[in-house]
Amino acid sequence: MNISRRVALAIIGVALATGSLAAHHSFAMFDMEKNVEYSGLITEWKWQNPHVHFNVLVKPGASVAPNTVGTWDVEGGSINIMSRQGWTRASYKIGDPIRLVGHPMKDGSKGISLFYAIRPDGSRLYHDIARPKDDVKK
Amino acid sequence: MAFFHSLQNSAFTDWFLGSDSIWTYPTVLTLHTVGMAILVGASLVINLRILQVAGAIPLQRLQPLYRFVWIGFAVNLSSGLVLFVTEAADRVVDPVFYVKICSIVAALSFGMVVKRNAIDRSDRQPAASARSRFLAAASLALWAVAIVSGRLMAYLKN
Predict the structure, then answer these.
(1) Ramachandran sector of residue A21 (left: φ over 0; alpha: ψ -120 to 50; beta: rest)
(2) What pLDDT shows up at residue A135?
(3) A120 touches chain B (CB under 8 A)
């Protein structure tokens, strides 16, 4: 009985000692009240579940806000959620230019929660059913 | 490590995660949740009874519940293997993943000891021993750790 008790306690102890959990990635880390526009080139395109991911390289330029320069990891929704908004696997590919509005990370690191992409004709491809308060049916 | 990278970057992973069909990732993830409900649900009933909840039910009557433990485990082992393959390289370096797997192995092992010592012998010994009650309580706690760590994996990953 004592041995099994000791073994059980040891296992529970190990299970509870989760160690260093350095990486974080949840929607709570994004500043959902803040909408920032980014213009750049797609450098990675992952059309996959549970979240679509792509990277955007924003180069410095006269009309580019300096705080948007760099390579950003953009997180979208699931394939099904984005498909219902009109996205497809072929919406973008590596090397394509993209304009998008997203919610940046609260801690200032280079992650964005996608809000919508702006297509060359000015129409919007939304991430999900959320719409901005000033939506004008674009 | 190269092996786990090759799994994560395989054509299967590309197809499984990139498919537009509701029958791939969403279905397997749902099966993983349903299997968990069956496995942990049956374990919860057994362990609570060992801890004298609904003490009027004879321990012998719990025997058929082990069928559900194994059905749930089989569903989750198979769906879990598929989910693991698609992010193998990330998971093998994820401490939370090991917490989850160790908790499941320990909870199941404790459950089997309880079955052998308390339920299979209940015709001779109608009440569960203090040791069985302790293992049942530990098993309940370990299932909780397994579920919480499983969920946390989605929020703490790189």
Answers:
(1) beta
(2) 64
(3) no
Among candidates B125, B137, B130, B123, which has minimal Cα distance to B43? B137
Find, in chain B, the residue whose alpha carbon is nearest to that of A45: B18
> Which residues on chain B are in Cβ contact (under 8 Å) with A85?
none
* ipTM > 0.85, yes or no: no
A109 touches chain B (CB under 8 A): no
Taking only the tens place, the pLDDT of each residue in B48-95 is 999 999 999 999 999 999 999 999 999 999 999 999 999 999 999 999
Cα dist from A50 to A17, A79, B155, whole Å: 28, 7, 12
**Interstrand relation of A124-126 and A97-104 (parallel, antiparallel or unpaired):** unpaired
Tally Cβ neighbours within 10 Å of residue B137.
16
Using an 8 Å Cβ cutoff, are B18 and A89 in contact?
A: yes
